[in-house]
Amino acid sequence: MSDADLAAHLADMAGRLLITVRDSGVFAGKALGSAGDATANQFLCHALRETRPEDGLLSEEEKDSFARLEHSRVWIVDPVDGTREYGECRADWAVHVGLAIDGVAALGAVALPGMGPGAGLVLRSDAPGVVPPAPDRLRMVVSRTRPAREAVAVAQALGAELIPMGSAGAKAMAVVLGQADIYLHTGGQYEWDSCAPVAVALAHGLHASRVDGSPLVYNQRDTYMPDLLICRKAHADLVLATLAGLD
């Protein structure tokens, strides 16, 4: 199985497991989120250690091992991106399976199990589709609970519509699917929040960077990533300039 096929297969299967846990009727709220995180994490980590034993691994739900820094290939996974949304039985959560090679988000798959029919959607970096054209009024996805001040300010400056949404993966894939145009985040994230979504976004021809325009670099000792911009390339300079001009 190729790396891309493996990423998509594991993201899809983890999503199916999460739907099964949710539909069991045993858990609710925070308990559902915890059970889902644990179940998906065990599956993904065991599967990757079995199928790619020579690679490094970083998961939100695993104790970090700096041994990954010795590898050029590191799998970066988020078993449930949007645990709160998953626990609330919403649709805007995701499963991330990404592969960073020499610090670059080289490939990935993002499963959206709560969206679409059956087990939902899986968007993958090796099977890019065409991103639909932007409408006259741009749309910006922001946190549904704590929209970043900078994102709100940029939206106001551009006259963009704000679309509240849950997980980082759901927001990024909304841009890929043409349901939104800009995903601007300045509230702090970690590598697992964006590696797979960035790989998918880049493969679809989108712009992805830090909010100062610098590259996103993965498999760092400190996994904290302060900010992120994903948008169409045609809008990148405008958004970056608007950001730079904020007081």
**Secondary structure tally: strands:** 12
Strand order in the largest sheet = 1-2-3-4-5
| Biggest sheet descriptor | 5 strands, mixed
Which structural category do the helix and sheet elements fall into?
Answer: alpha/beta
What distance lies between the first and last C-alpha atoms, to the nearest angstrom?
50 Å
Radius of gyration: 17 Å
Mean pLDDT: 96
**Helix content class:** 25-40%
Coarse shape:
globular
Task: Describe this structure in a few short sentences.
The protein is an alpha/beta fold and 247 residues long.
Account of the 3D structure:
By secondary structure, this protein is an alpha/beta fold. Helix content is 38%, strand content 25%. The protein has a 5-stranded mixed beta sheet with strand order 1-2-3-4-5, sandwiched between helices. α1 runs antiparallel to α2 (29-51) and α5 runs parallel beside α6 (191-203). The mean pLDDT is 96.
